[in-house]
Amino acid sequence: MKSRFAMIQMESVADPSVNLGKAGRFVREAMELCAPDLIVFPETFMSETGGAIPERNAWAQPLDGPFVAGMQKLAKDHGVWIVFGMKETVEDPADGRVYNAVVMLDDKGSVVRTYHKTHLYDAFGYKESDEIKAGDAFFEPVDTPFGRIGLFVCYEVRFPEVARAQRAKGAEIILLPTAWVKGDMKSLHFETLVKARAIENTVFILACDQYSRIRMGESIAVDPMGVTLAGGGEGEKVIPVFIDTDRIAEVRKKLPSYEDRRPELY
For the whole model, what pTM was predicted? Predict the structure, then answer.
């Protein structure tokens, strides 16, 4: 089964309304460029800003807020599935943290699934857990017209167990919204980890990154053999990705590594 995806590699600012306007322009560009079935935006693309944690988290919104509503309208108006990252308010405002959330919309604009990032980026001198409240459950893969789709977020690509859990639940295509920070060896790590998770689970992976002064860009889509299908390099852009899920069966027939596991030994 053949389908078309698009990754939107873009820079976000603090104000969600500005990012929503950019999203609209990118969705229109994507529809003209490749008429995708599903569009992926980066992690926390709803709002990105520096400053103190209270200032950054003040931009968070609930799922029934204006940003999600605006994205729902885009999905419905263009008849396209959309997946995007945002900062979602938590149940207790006194907590001071927010959720690093991802929302999946169908082509009618309905919320199909939401996910709260579970493994937080307390690494490379940064402590995401100071501002983000961790989720307590993995994403439940979704059956779509273009395959069974799994998902996890950014830093979670460094944990093989997270990708394996998606594969164990039948994921064929895994979406990976990211806001990968530039730095020593970070580009190498990003590409290596994305390809490793795809190869060891024989799935497609679409890693959609932000691009800015501190965000790396270099979004990448790979097939179940780890072959690069599309790449973003630097700059803001629409990245078309063409997927044929028949490729999954071909690869799994000659590389049955998932079936050859011996979990009783682990």
Answer: 0.97
